[in-house]
Amino acid sequence: MCEMWTTGDERRVAERNKQNRATQSMTYRRGMTSHYQLMNDFSNMHGRHPHRLELFKMGRCKGLLDGSESWVDEESRRRYETMTQMIAPSSDFDAES
Question: Could you tell me where the Basic and acidic residues compositional bias lies (predicted)?
Answer without folding.
Answer: 8-18
